[in-house]
Structure formats: structure tokens, C-alpha cells
Amino acid sequence: MREDPMKIEFWSDVVCPYCGLMDHRLHQALNRFGHSEQVQVIHRSFQLHPDLPREGVSQSELIEMAGAPASTVDRVLRPIERAAEAEGLTPYHAVDRTLGPTDLAHELLAYATDQGRGNEIWTAMFRAHFGQARKLWTTEEVLDFAAEVGLDPAGAAEALRSRRYRARVAADQREAERLGARGAPFLVFDRRFAVPGAIGTEDLLAAITKAWAEAHPTPQPLPVVSEADGICTPDGCAVPEPGTA
To answer: Mean pLDDT over residues 15-33, rounded?
Structure first.
């Protein structure tokens, strides 16, 4: 039986409202999973809007730029907000917010991962953006966030200004696309199967349980290939009755 942790790789973008909701649901599902201490969550980057202006755009402007119908707000985004509220994730601003390029945010998250705080800082960044409608597009905005969550100011500043995590962020996205991702969220369970898109907490728990069961199969009795002439057990030896072997 394996001893290494089961891995859940979670590709997402910090401006993706389904991703922030799935981060919350993943915490909820793992809290209910009996082997959560043996599960490793690995956050990976998937940038949805890398070409947005650095100053950012409103949600309505993005909808217009993408050529999506105005009904997207009421048909898609407001239901996400209501789902988040129903699940205890509030406030959650999927509509009244600004969106921008997340390259620097992802590079900070890669730095935080190297500092052993990746999962914690990913969740904090989701909460900053969707809970406070925070802008996280410029170096100054991202470094202000880094200071608030207690990352080393000098280390975070060097990571962003050197752009030494840019290649890792890009590699994350290429790997997701290689595995079949067309967007985010995209979850991969132990490299056994993937879940593209958001699912409910119950379904997420079922996926975690399935991946665990496949990695930790229950031993099964071996098939019998011939009849035996007799057998000895702790209770003694016996010859099988005809037709019972």
C-alpha cells in the first residue's frame, strides 16, 4: 500500500469566481474526508485574461469586450454569489469588482508556495479579491497584499521584480492544457482522472473518495482454480464433501 500522499492538483485563476468557490468547497470536502491528513493539495496557475490592461476593467466592461450577452450577470454571476452565500462564503463579489491581468499575482503565489505557504496564500488571495473586491494587478497592489498576509517584503519584492517565477506560471498553464483543460477550475486527482469545471461539495467529496479508493484498493480473496483434496484449519483437517469445494 502506498505511503506517499494522494495529490489533488488545482488549476485556477484568482479572478475566476467558480475557482474561488471551488477553493472553499475543497476545504469543506477535505474537512469531511477521513484521510485528509494524507492528501496534498497543489495549486497551479491558469490565467484567463492575461491581456487585460494593467489598470483593470470592470466586470461589465469585460463582458462587453468578450462579446458575451449582458444576461451573463443574472444568468451566471449572480447565481455564483447566491451559491457562495448559501455555503457560508460571504461576502462574495462576482459582479461588482474589477478584473485585470493576474501574472504578478500568480508569480507571488509561486513564491509563497516555495515558502511553504502556497495553499494558505491562494485562499487568502481568493478572499481578498472576491471578499473585498481587491485589485491585484500591479506590482504595488500585489506587494501590499503580500505584506498583509505576512510574506517577507524583501523576498516578495525580489520575486516580482526579477520575474523569476514567470516561467513556472507559464509551465503550469501548458501542463493543464496538455491534460485537456480548456479553462478553470480544473482539478486532477492523483493523475488518475480530471474534473473540468466547478462541482458541488458532495460530488467533490465523492471524487476525492474515488481517487483514494483507487490508490488504496481493499485486498480481495484470490480466485480458486481447482478443487482441493482436503484442508487443515485451526479446527482440524477435513475432506470436502462432494460438491462443496
So the answer is: 98
User: 228 pLDDT band (50/70/90 cuts)?
Assistant: low
Q: What is the pLDDT of residue 238?
A: 77
State yes or no: cis peptide before 153, omega within 30 of 0: no
**Cell numbers at residue 83, please?**
451559491
Domains and CATH numbers, the chain: 6-215 (3.40.30.10)
Do 68 and 55 form a contact (C-beta atoms < 8 A)? Answer: no
Residue whose grid cell is 465523492: 206
Compute the mean pLDDT over every residue in the chain, rounded to the nearest whole number: 93
Burial of 198 (0-12, 13-18, 19+ CB in 10 A): buried
pLDDT, tens digit (0-9, with 9 covering 90-100), for 31-72: 999 999 999 999 999 999 999 999 999 999 999 998 999 899
